[in-house]
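Blinded run. Sample ID left blank on purpose so nobody reads anything into the name before looking at the predicted structure. Input follows.
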Amino acid sequence: MGRLAVVAIGGNSLIKDPRHQTVEDQYRAAGETCAHIAGMIRAGWDVAITHGNGPQVGFILRRSELARHELHEVPLDVCGADTQGAIGYALQQNLYNHFRRLGIAKPAVTVVTQVEVAADDPAFQHPTKPIGSYMDEATATRRRDEDGWAVMEDAGRGWRRVVPSPLPRRIVEEGVVRALLADGCTVIAVGGGGIPVVADADGALRGVAAVIDKDYASSLLASTIRADLFLISTAVDRVAVNFGQPNQEWVSQMTLAEAKRYLAEGTHFAKGSMAPKIQAVVWYLERGGREAIITSPEQIERALAGEAGTRIVAG
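Blinded prediction complete.
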C-alpha cells in the first residue's frame, strides 16, 4: 500500500446552495469532488473518504414527520445508516466512472460504519445538536412529553429537537476498512460521523439518538488506520486567523502548537464550522499523525503540491 490519506469532505461537496438540493444536484456535486480525489489517487495516494450528512438526515426526518400520520417515523440512527448508503452510492459510482476514464484499476466501496460512544458521555446530559424541522412551542412540548424529546427554542425561528453530540471512541468496522484499503480499494466510511452506538455490559451494541461530529470521527479514523495525511475539504481554500475581523489573515502553514494556541484564544475560528476542524487536526497530530491539510475540493491537488490550502504539521 502506498501513501495513505483520509479525505473528509464537507456538506458543500454535496449541496452547494439552497437552490441545488435534489438527489441529482447532489450527485453532480459529488462527481466534481470525486474528480479531484481521483486525481489524488492517480498521483499515488490510497484514500479513505469520509463525508457529512446533516442536510440529508434533515430531509429524511422531514419526510418522516410529514408522513407520521400514515407511516412509522424513522429513528435517528437509521437515518444515519440510510444516508451512509445513499451518499456512499453517489460517491462510489462517481469514483468508478472517474477511475474508468483515467485508466485506474481500483474499486470503490462503501462501508456502513458504526462508531461507539461512551454511554456515560456528558453530552447525553446536555443535548445541544438541533435536528429536524422547526416546530411551534405547543408541538415541541407535546413531543417532549409524549416522545421524550429534548427541545429548545432556536434563535427566534421556532422550536427544534436537540440531541447529544458525544465524542467518538471506537470505529467498530475499523478492521474491515483496513482490510479493504490493503486490498487496493478506495473506501468510503464513517459517513456523517458514523452511526452512534453504545455497548452494554456484555459488549452488545445498540444505536442511540445522537450525532457525532464528522470531523472528530474522521480524525479518529485517520489515527486508527495510521494515515500519512488527514485532509479536510471544506468551503474555503485556506484557514484564516482573526476570521471575520478587520485583521483577518489567511494562513498557509501552522504548527500543532500554533493551532492549539489559536483554539485556546477562542477568537479565530467559528465554533460551528472551522473550530471543530482545527480540533480534529490537533487530536490527529497529538496521536502521532504526520500532517494535515485544510482546503476546498477544487484546490486538493494544488494543496498536495504545496500551492494552496493550510498545512498543519506536528513540529
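Unblinding after everyone has recorded impressions. The two ends are 26 Å apart (CA to CA).
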